[in-house]
Structure formats: structure tokens, C-alpha cells
Write a structure and sequence with these properties.
The complex is a heterodimer of chains A (272) and B (358).
Chain A (H helix, E strand, L loop, with lengths): L8 E2 L5 E2 L2 E12 L2 E12 L3 E5 L6 H8 L7 E6 L2 E2 L5 H6 L2 E3 L12 H7 L9 H6 L3 H19 L15 H14 L4 E5 L7 H18 L2 E5 L3 H7 L2 E6 L2 E6 L1 H5 L2 H8 L4
Parallel strand pairs in A: 5-10, 5-11, 8-9, 9-10
Antiparallel strand pairs in A: 1-2, 3-4, 3-6, 6-7, 11-12
Chain B lengths: L12 H4 L6 H21 L2 H27 L7 H18 L5 H20 L7 H21 L12 E2 L3 E3 L2 E4 L5 H24 L1 H11 L1 H6 L4 H28 L1 E2 L6 H14 L5 H23 L6 H22 L3 H15 L5
Antiparallel strand pairs in B: 1-4, 2-3
Helix pairs in contact in B: 3-7, 3-10, 3-11, 3-12, 4-5, 4-6, 4-10, 5-10, 7-10, 8-10, 11-12, 11-14, 12-13, 12-14
Classes of the chains: A alpha/beta (272), B mainly alpha (358).
């Protein structure tokens, strides 16, 4: 690994990675008798693209759900931006700057692309029910300011031509992109992507990879992602956590992980 | 050709987000409002006011209230009739306790009472969804109607157990009660319905509307993007019950003139639900289309045999009505399950590109 100090490190392509933004400390997650995650610790640094990989059922999605607050860990704690995160509702965590996409697309099917992306900005919209009922004035001004921000995201992800289309009519690849747009509209500090390339063809994967790198590069957003396509993971990410059966079996740069014997065993299997 | 949008360019987000981005829609609405505010009052007969115009408006408002809850926020409710009753009884109590009260104020305030009751019965929605929630609101339906019957204070201990609308003046004009003329009643209802509809359009087109629709479409994702589901569902119950309550007050004070508890029973709830579904869930305009269909159809079917000089016994007409309306409802739901509003949207989309659809 490159010179790793407390304050961060510089990547091979010259990006400065900052200090620790989020740290998972000895996280264990149980569902009744099933242990989904067993005593896992790792950190996510500011400005980094951090991947979580592992075979099916390794507990990756559960881990992402712990980070986004959908699951509360049975043991251990989550340290975020300088403090231990207390028990919080998922919507409160979203307001702290954590946005995510879903493995199975979770868009609002009855709304247009524009409205879907606008929902990403709900945490920024403050006008009360009464001023909304009046519409003219504060509510309208707020709507326009946020629309401008949303249009930037729409331009960035190149979905201008479908902005008034109901989401239900879109093909799969575009839906994934709209979901990313919704997450980006919230201007997150930490962006969680759950299998952003699942079910895509090579071309769509290339597009999505480009968007992920651009988001990281232009907005400086920290990204944590789960992905099965090893080529993509190794090319995109700065550091990789490898999980298997709920345990962490590797952590480091793509190069280090690739040469880790435990990781090779987990993926290829070993004779017992 | 009528719906040509060519040449209408939007140069700001404000213009793009206008209520009617297409000029023809605004013209059409102006026409309808002109009809409702100016032409109908001059043309309509006493019969038309009592059987068509006023009921259409009242039912539209009730369906609009239900649509906020079911169509926009995705929470099923079967208690609409009872919530209308809460509005009506609240208005009755206020008017009898403070006879000097302005009726507009009384009607608008009565909505708050049903709002409170609605929120109380909406609390289970945080735990249960869909049909199970519908059953919980069904409990509200039966409980409230039972209360209208048993609590004498609500109907001022009258012998009949019914509430009777007294004569109410506003600025020297009789607006409700036996002395009021149908035209004044109509204008009163039209005014309230217009105001409430504008407010609901504003609420559903902006932030709150998106919060409700997000809750309806995918509640897990909604919570993870920062929506407080508890608040979202309860505001839906509050706003919806408010509108339903106001419509209930209008129902009794400006249309029926008197009410017994069983007026607000489950069949009223279903009637309003039918209007909302046939009109189109998640639409504002649909409520009006649905109400026109459900209210006007029986009247038209009653008049038709006379027009053609066919003599049918009135009981037969009544039965025919029920059969025809029932089959029409099924027919509409098969050709357009998303209601009349969607049907209109499709026609409009086709008209915009007509006659060159490719």
C-alpha cells in the first residue's frame, strides 16, 4: 500500500485521500440464530472508492444496510464523522449525508424521472405545509432553486431526454442511472452503491463506471460499493474489503487482495 | 389540431413547472370554470341544482379527500363516510352553540375535528398496510356511526335522533336551511370546493406531494432517502380527513338539509371510494369526472325513457339503473383501470400528436 498515514494517502493516479470518515468497529449482526456479520471492522476514508466484495451470501448487503442504518448492529458500533453514531432512524441517517442505491431498483414507479430525482432533495427542502398550500412565494422559490440543482445532476448523468418520462416505462439500465441520480441529488458525503452494475451489458457497465469515477472526481464524494464484476472492482476501487460467511477475510488495495490466499480460496474453493 | 404544442417553448424552470405548461389546458380550465361560475347558475333549474350540480361538487370534494390518502399516499381507507359524519356533526354543534358564527368559518373549522379523528384512526397505518389497514378504518366507520346514534349531545337530544339544519344567514342572505335558495347554496359549495381544490393541487404538486407518492410507491426506499414515514402517513390522514370533513359539512348543510346517523354508513364510504377509483387514483381532476359519472348517470337514465316516450314502471327504472351503473363501472375498470383521468390523459396525448402520430 502507498504511504498510509493517519491523515490519508495518495493514490496511484494522484488523488489525495483524506482521513477516516466512517469506521465500523467490531460489527456483529444476528437475525435470531443466524449470524449474518461476525465481528467485522474496517474504515472508509474521505474521498475514497471502497469496495466490499465476497461470494453470494457473504453478508455484503447486510453490511451496507448497517451503514445506511436500515439494520442496527447487534454488537459493535459505527463511528461516523468524528463521533459514535447513536441509535438512529434510517431517515435521520440520510439527513447526515448518507445516500444509497439498491440492488433491486427501488424507484418510485408512479412518478416521472424528474420527480424521482427531486425526491433526493427532500432533506434540503424546508418550506412548511402552509406555505406549500399557498404555493406562490416561498414554496415556489424553493422548488425552482432545487430544480436547478436537480438539472445539474440530470445533465451530469445524461438523462435529459427522459426527464418527464414515468419511471415505470424505462428500461433497466436507465432505471439504475435514475436511481444514481436520485442519490446524487441529495449531495451525499457518503454514497453507497449496492451492485450498481448488476444485470448490465458491457457498454452500460462502462457508462456506469465512468459515472462513478466522475462523481468521485468532480464532487469528491466518498463511495462504498458492492459489486460482483471483479474487473470493475479492481479497476475502480482504491481499497477492497473481502467478506466470506459473514467474516472479513481480506482488506487492502486491489493488488493486495488479489494475491491474498484466503481470498483466492474463498472464490475458488479449497479441498477440506 | 386543437392541441398543437408546437411553438410553446419554456425558457425558465418556473414556466416549466407551471400548472398548465400547455396553453390549451389553461383555456379548457377557464372554460369549465366559466361554465361552473357563470353559465350554470343562470341556466340550471331547481331540480338540476339539487340532483346534479350540488351533489357532484360535494361528492367530488369527498373523493378528493379520500384520493389524497389512498391515491397519493397509498393508505387504504373505508371510513370516509364516518369522517364525513364527523365534519357534519362538528359543524352542527358549532352552529347550534354559536348561532352567530359565519357558516364559511364553521364549515372550514369542522374539517379540523375530523382531521383529529382521522389521525387517531390513522395511527395503526404505521404498523399495518393494505387490506389490514382498511379493516382498521372499517372499525372507525362502525364506531363513529354508533357514536352518532348513541351520544345524544351530538344531535342536541332531539326526539328523532337526527340533525336538522337551521336557517343560517350570512351578510343578510340566507345561505343554508329551508329558506336558502339553491343558487346561493350552489355558489357557497362552489366557492369552498374551488378553494380547497386549489390548495390540494398545490400540496400535491410540490414537496409534500412527492413525499406522499414516495411513501405510496416504495416505503423502504422513501425512508432511506430521508422521509419520516410516520410524519408522511399522519399528514396524509390529517389532510385527507380535513377535506372529507369539510365535504361532510357541505353534504348536510348545503345539500341534504338534515341527516340521520345511518346516512354516514358504509355505503357512503363505498360510494366515495367508487368515485375515486373510477375517476382515477392519484389524480385531482379524476374525482370530478368520477363524481359526474356516478351522480349524473342515474339522473340521465331516469330521464331517458320519458324522452323516448317509453313507459316503464319507476321500480323497473330503479333496477335498470343499478344494473346499468354496475356494468358501466366494470366496463370502465376493464378498459381503463387507472380511471377516467388516465383515459383523458391518453386522449390528450393522442390529440397532441394528431394527425401525425409518427
Amino acid at each position: 500500500m502507498n504511504d498510509m498515514t493517519h491523515d490519508g494517502y495518495v493514490t496511484e493516479d494522484g488523488r489525495q485521500i483524506g482521513g477516516v470518515m466512517m469506521e465500523m468497529k467490531n460489527i456483529t449482526l444476528r437475525f435470531g440464530g443466524v449470524v449474518a456479520i461476525k465481528d467485522i471492522s474496517f474504515d472508509i476514508r474521505e474521498g475514497e472508492i471502497r469496495a466490499i466484495i465476497g461470494p453470494n451470501g457473504a453478508g455484503k448487503s447486510s453490511m451496507l444496510n448497517v451503514i445506511s442504518g436500515f439494520y442496527t448492529p447487534s454488537e459493535g458500533e459505527v463511528w461516523y464523522q468524528g463521533a459514535t453514531r447513536p441509535m438512529m432512524k434510517p431517515y435521520e441517517i440520510a439527513r447526515q449525508g448518507v445516500a444509497r442505491t439498491f440492488q433491486n431498483i427501488a424507484l418510485f414507479e408512479g412518478m416521472t424521472v424528474l420527480d424521482n430525482v427531486m425526491t433526493g432533495r427532500l432533506t434540503k427542502m424546508k418550506s412548511g405545509l402552509l406555505s406549500q398550500a399557498m404555493w406562490w412565494g416561498k414554496a415556489q422559490a424553493e422548488e425552482i432553486v432545487n430544480r436547478e440543482q436537480v438539472e445539474k445532476v440530470i445533465d451530469f448523468l445524461e438523462i435529459q431526454n427522459i426527464r418527464k418520462t414515468p419511471v415505470g416505462r424505462l428500461p433497466y439500465g436507465l432505471k439504475k442511472r435514475v436511481e444514481l441520480a436520485r442519490a446524487l441529488a441529495a449531495e451525499p458525503k457518503l454514497l453507497l452503491l449496492d451492485e450498481p452494475m448488476a444485470g448490465m451489458n458491457v457498454e452500460e457497465k462502462e457508462d456506469m463506471s465512468r459515472f462513478i469515477l466522475d462523481v468521485n472526481d468532480e464532487f469528491g464524494t466518498t463511495i462504498a460499493l458492492i459489486e460482483h464484476d471483479m474487473g470493475v472492482v479492481m479497476d475502480l476501487s482504491d481499497r477492497v474489503v473481502v467478506m466470506d460467511y459473514g467474516k472479513k477475510i481480506g482488506d487492502g488495495t486491489p493488488e493486495e487482495v488479489r494475491n491474498n490466499q484466503d481470498v483466492i480460496d474463498a472464490y475458488l474453493g479449497v479441498a477440506h | 389540431m386543437l392541441y398543437r404544442t408546437a411553438g410553446q417553448f419554456k425558457t425558465s424552470y418556473k414556466k416549466d413547472q407551471a400548472l398548465f405548461p400547455v396553453r390549451q389546458d389553461a383555456t379548457l380550465l377557464a372554460l369549465i370554470l366559466g361554465l361552473a361560475w357563470i353559465v350554470f347558475p343562470f341556466m340550471a333549474s331547481e331540480f338540476a341544482f339539487q340532483t346534479l350540480l350540488i351533489p357532484v361538487l360535494v361528492y367530488s370534494l369527498a373523493a378528493l379527500g379520500l384520493n389524497i390518502l389512498t391515491g397519493f399516499a397509498g393508505q387504504l381507507s373505508l371510513g370516509t363516510g364516518a369522517f364525513m359524519g364527523v365534519g357534519a356533526y362538528a359543524c352542527y354543534k358549532m352552529i347550534t352553540i354559536f348561532p352567530e358564527m359565519n357558516l364559511i368559518v364553521a364549515v372550514l373549522l369542522s374539517g379540523f375535528f375530523s382531521s383529529i379523528v382521522g389521525v387517531a384512526f390513522g395511527l395503526p397505518s404505521l404498523r399495518i398496510k393494505g387490506f389490514y389497514l382498511a379493516i382498521a378504518t372499517l372499525a372507525a366507520q362502525f364506531f363513529l356511526v354508533w357514536m352518532f346514534e348513541k351520544v345524544g349531545w351530538l344531535y342536541n337530544y332531539s326526539n328523532t335522533g337526527a340533525i336538522q339544519v337551521p336557517n343560517i344567514d350570512m351578510f343578510g342572505v340566507a345561505v343554508a336551511g329551508p329558506l336558502a335558495s339553491s343558487v346561493t347554496k350552489y355558489y357557497f359549495v362552489l366557492f369552498i370546493v374551488t378553494v380547497v381544490t386549489v390548495v390540494m393541487i398545490n400540496l400535491t404538486r410540490g414537496t409534500q406531494g412527492r413525499i406522499w407518492k414516495a411513501t405510496r410507491d416504495m416505503d423502504i426506499a422513501a425512508e432511506l432517502i430521508g422521509i419520516n414515514l410516520l410524519k408522511s402517513k399522519l399528514t396524509a390522514f390529517a389532510v385527507s380527513s380535513y377535506v372529507v370533513g369539510v365535504s361532510g359539512a357541505l353534504f348536510v348543510f348545503l345539500w341534504r338539509g338534515a341527516a340521520e346517523p345511518n346516512l354516514f354508513d358504509i355505503s357512503l364510504s363505498f360510494r366515495v371510494l367508487f368515485i375515486a377509483i373510477i375517476g382515477g387514483l392519484g389524480s385531482i381532476m379524476g374525482n370530478f369526472l368520477g363524481a359526474i359519472l356516478i351522480v349524473a348517470l342515474p339522473v340521465v337514465l331516469n330521464i331517458l325513457p320519458e324522452l323516448f316516450g317509453i313507459e316503464i314502471a319507476s321500480a323497473t327504472v330503479e333496477h335498470l339503473n343499478i344494473m346499468i351503473i354496475g356494468s358501466l363501472i366494470i366496463f370502465f375498470l376493464i378498459i381503463e383501470p387507472h380511471g377516467l383521468a388516465r383515459l383523458w390523459a391518453l386522449i390528450r396525448e393522442k390529440l397532441i400528436i394528431w394527425p401525425f402520430p409518427h
